[in-house]
Each structure stands twice: as C-alpha cells, then as structure tokens.
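Researcher: Sequence recovery benchmark, item below. Answer with residues only.
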C-alpha cells in the first residue's frame, strides 16, 4: 500500500489550489487523483471569459485560469494520476482507486482534501411529464459537446432553469448559430449572477420568463416541441397559461448537487441544506484529517472563491499531516442562521485554531431588499451591514476577526441573520 501525507480527490480548481497551498505550507508527499484525462476539471470546457478577476486581477477564460494552477503544480513536481477513479475511502483514510495502468490500488493518506466538485440535476430528478426523446441535455453536457467535442446539440433551443451555466449556454448556442427561443425559470427570481443575465440574455434579446416551467415534452424520436406554463406560489402550473414552442432541443440548468457519495460512505456528516460536508473554521469535516473545499462543499458562483477556499483547506491539511494526533483539544462554537440566510460555511468555529481573519460564506433563500446582515455573539451584535439587494444566486460573505473572539471569551454561539436597517 502506497502512503502519502496528503491526497486530493479531484484535480479541478479546488484540488489544484489545495495541492499548491499544501506544498507551500511544507508538505511534500502529495498526490492528486483525477478521473478525467487532464488536469483542470470543469474549467477546461468553460471557454468563456470572466475568470480570475479576484485571483489574478485580470480576465481569463476557464482553460487559461486552470493552466495557471496546472503550471504551479508542475513547477512543484506534485504527483498526480489521471484517468483514475476513486471508488471508496475508508474512515481510516485508506483510498481505493482504479486506473488502466495501475489497476486496483490502495493508498493510505494522513490527510485528505475532498475536491470532487458537483454534478447537474438530471431530468429524472425534475419529474417533467412527456416522452423521453433525444434532444434533452443538461446545460453542462451541451457545453462540453459544443466547446470540446465540436458538436451542435440543436438548432431551436428552449432552456429550463436560469443558473449560470444555462445563461452562458444561451449565449453560446446563439453565437454558434442556433436560435434560443426562451429561458424559463421555476422560481420568481433568476438563479444566476446579474452580470450573466445582462451579458447572455439581454444583450442577445433572449426572453427570460420567471415563475414558469415545462409541463410537457413532445416528440418520440427527437424533441419536436415543449409546453411552458406559469406556476403559482406553490410552484404548481396555472391552467390557461400554457405556451407552446416548436423546438428540437431542451436544455436543463436546474441546479448543481455536490458530489458526496464518497463522503457519505466514509462517514462524513452532510449538511442537509448544501448537500455538502459540515466543516469547521479549517474546512475540516467531522472526521479528523479529512477536509473539503470548492463545489463539493457548497456551490460557488465564482471560481476565484473556490481557489481561495481550497488554499485554506490545503494549508490546514498540511498542518494536520505534520501534527497528526498531537493537536490541541478543540472547542466548537456553532453558527446559527435566521431571517434569510439558509446555511453558513463553516458550521462551527474554534477561536484557537482560526486565522486572524476568517471568511464566512452563506446564501439567502429569497430575494431580499433594503435590509441589513447582522452577526450576534450570543446577545451582542458585533456586525450590522446594510445590503440593498441579496439574492439566492449570489453568495454573501462576512469576515470575522480574532479580535471579536478575544472580546467574547465565554462565547457559546454565533448567529447570522437578516434584519431591518
């Protein structure tokens, strides 16, 4: 059995940033395991620009952004295995993986960084009635077909869901010569970034219909048309609001699900809201030495934040691999939410193990206007920040400093809420 100090499961933006950070923190025995044929993960098919503004202070495409980190990994001679599928991780951090050259292998790790990313919600999970013809794609699959395989999935396209991938594919299909008829969204607000709505829909005169869903798919061999309908407050179709569209393609951009089957099987505690692991201030799960970062933890809207988060996880993993069981005892202060925020990352904080500044990220459940985000340490309000607009499609951030914790030595809980200005 091979042994490594740190193993990253996944070599997308999170795995690459974690590996570089772990190396820079002193770790040398590092291994990246990637199931695809190249490093970089989903970034390789994201050929549009808009990446890297926070990390590199310039606008890059997805492959360009990935290459920056791939170059750093190779510069440090960090070992990686491609075309390698991890099929199990034990509670004792024994990784079982398989590829063509090594066959079935077992790897013992002192620390593990989970960086498997996320997957798209499928048609089967959406319960759309109608036939099962060809021409129904998830937006990410269509993106790979166009950008990497060189195929055009269809000529007349309807998109269900206004997540960022769906919005970007509306523009991409238009640029490739297809006609995007409409983007429909079940919720009364878009799930994507405001800039993507403007650049991908408004600039190309593509209509966005909110509180609308697909109620029927027509066609047996290939999609020939779909029917949209408005929905009520309970998300049920309203009779009499049906609209028919003749099309040959239906794209689904209906949410991303963190890829946590391996996490669950090894006993990692999962947050029911994010479907990602519950982590502390070091992005460590309930299993000591197992860390998580990126979209496997919670779905991000910017890859720059993925890299930043993964760098913290990689550094913490290097520290754990060096100390192991010699770490000092922990004190867990829980973070609670009310009045808008649905969850927080991290879920708990130990002031003795946190950095000088700790970024807490969360998303709200609905569009909220002209309110304030507040942070309470027990009954003491320490932050009260005005926010003109908050939406589920855009992640919110708060920065907690050690100074706050030093002023509250007997702190028992932290509450993050939305309240009146």
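Model:
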């Amino acid at each position: 059995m091979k042994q490594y100090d740190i193993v990253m499961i996944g070599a997308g933006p999170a795995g690459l940033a974690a590996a570089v950070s772990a190396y820079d923190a002193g770790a040398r025995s590092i291994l990246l395991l990637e199931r695809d044929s190249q490093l970089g993960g989903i970034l390789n098919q994201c050929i549009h620009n808009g990446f890297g503004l926070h990390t590199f202070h310039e606008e890059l495409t997805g492959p360009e952004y990935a290459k920056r980190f791939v170059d750093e990994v190779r510069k440090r001679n960090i070992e990686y295995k491609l075309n390698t599928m991890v099929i199990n991780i034990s509670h004792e951090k024994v990784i079982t993986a398989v590829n063509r050259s090594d066959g079935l292998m077992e790897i013992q790790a002192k620390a593990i960084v989970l960086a498997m990313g996320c997957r798209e919600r499928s048609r089967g999970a959406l319960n759309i009635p109608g036939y099962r013809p060809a021409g129904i794609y998830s937006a990410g699959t269509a993106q790979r077909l166009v950008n990497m395989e060189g195929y055009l999935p269809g000529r007349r396209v309807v998109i269900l869901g206004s997540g960022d991938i769906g919005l970007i594919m509306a523009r991409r299909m238009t640029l490739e010569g297809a006609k995007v008829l409409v983007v429909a969204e079940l919720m009364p607000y878009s799930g994507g970034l405001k800039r993507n709505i403007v650049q991908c829909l408004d600039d190309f005169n593509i209509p966005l219909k909110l509180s609308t869903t697909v109620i029927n798919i027509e066609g047996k061999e290939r999609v020939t048309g779909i029917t949209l309908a408005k929905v009520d407050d309970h998300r049920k179709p309203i009779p009499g609001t049906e609209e028919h569209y003749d099309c040959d393609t239906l794209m689904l951009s209906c949410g991303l699900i963190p890829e946590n089957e391996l996490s669950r099987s090894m006993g990692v505690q999962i947050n029911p809201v994010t479907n990602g692991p519950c982590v502390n201030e070091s992005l460590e799960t309930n299993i000591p030495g197992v860390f998580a970062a990126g979209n496997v933890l919670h779905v991000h809207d910017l890859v720059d934040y993925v890299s930043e988060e993964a760098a913290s996880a990689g550094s913490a993993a290097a520290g754990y691999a060096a100390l192991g069981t010699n770490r000092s005892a922990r004190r867990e202060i829980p973070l609670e939410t009310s009045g808008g925020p649905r969850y927080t990352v991290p879920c708990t904080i130990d002031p003795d193990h946190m950095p000088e500044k700790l970024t807490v990220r969360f998303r709200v459940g609905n569009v909220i206007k002209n309110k304030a985000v507040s942070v309470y340490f027990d009954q003491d309000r320490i932050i009260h920040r005005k926010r003109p607009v908050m939406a589920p499609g855009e992640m919110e951030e708060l920065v907690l400093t050690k100074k706050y914790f030093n002023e509250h030595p007997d702190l028992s809980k932290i509450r993050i809420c939305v309240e009146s200005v």
